[in-house]
Specification:
single chain; alpha+beta; 4-stranded mixed β-sheet; 3-stranded antiparallel β-sheet
Amino acid sequence: MLHALINHFDRCIDENGNKLSTHTQSVLIQSIIRCNSNGKPIDVVPIDKPGKAIDVPTQVKRASGIAANLLVDNLEYLIGIKNDKQDQKSLEKLEAFRDLNLSILDSNIQIGSCAESFKKFLELDPQIFLDFYQRNKDNLAGSSWIGLEFAGDLIVEDPYLKERAIKHNSSNDDARFMTSIISGVKEPIAKLHPAVKNLFAGQTAGTNLISFNEKSTSTNGTNEEQGYLAPIGITDASKISQTLSFLIKNNNNRVDMINILSFSNVSEKAEAIVNGILGYSGSTEKEELNSSDNIDDEFNFGPGAEEERDITREVTGIIRSIRSGYRPSVINTEDYHPDEPFYIIGLQPNASRISTLFYYEDSFNHLVENFTRFYSAAELDTGNQYFSPNLRWLIRAHKLKTNKSNKTIRKTETALVESM
């Protein structure tokens, strides 16, 4: 499963058409502190929930102790405030943020640049931050990520600062170099793995797929620390978490509490078909697939979108056919890569970690055959030629229940795997 996720990393394209990067990550900033050219904070710009997504240099994974980030952070680290006051611990975090970010600045800072203003901000007296907070605390309340802006420019978008931050993160002077058990590449090992974001019912800050508890640090009498027991390189760890976060956000078809992720490493059409069978991009429970004549009205295609319209009509027709219990022969063509592997993962948050309920790998051709037989065995008679329920609705409708208590006695994940 981890190999498949790493291989899928390069196929993940965000909404802006950019590939994912192992050097940056996306965070949601809830407010922006605006500062003047001398680095002094002026006011706060609150951002409506859930916040503004921005790419920042890869952030540290905090388990315990003090660990500052580069360019963005929370109130404690940025201005040394916790629970409306400055105490020794919050001032230590402020100092850690200050020292780390000053360390990436060199002597060639351009006068009047964003970097120069940021340097002046870092050198301010903590009392200035406390006074600023007292005037603006209503707009800073509940902000887990806060951005800094100088003369209208966010520092995380400043080319010089971003380049310096990424270069610092890539140096890994304190990391241990070992061979990653996934890729076989010798690189710094991830002691703590990045959290997976966007998981339904998961933690807001992200949930761990791979983590190590205290007992594992003394396995077989050794004193190895956390991730060094099962060494996975920082590049592999970043690709796994980012790919999962991307799939959860874009290819997630949830059934009850289960996040179902489906993907192919070769065919977008195959992905669209399986997503359509599972849940059709998160649409309603009892979904109706419109006839081909209504495709334009349903998807709002504009001028010049003939190719996209034709593909959508083709994929929608295939989904409708499979849901009716018939296997279309068109999926045998090269466009769908029928013999290439297809992957489906079922994830569910479990306390502070992610539980992998199932991992399914098979050829796309075989997977479609199984889905078709599953729908055929259901013998649906809806009385509506256009009503074609997705798998999510079908499984919920056919889960076995007791007559008296009406409790489910057949697990959802069992029904899902049976359908595959």
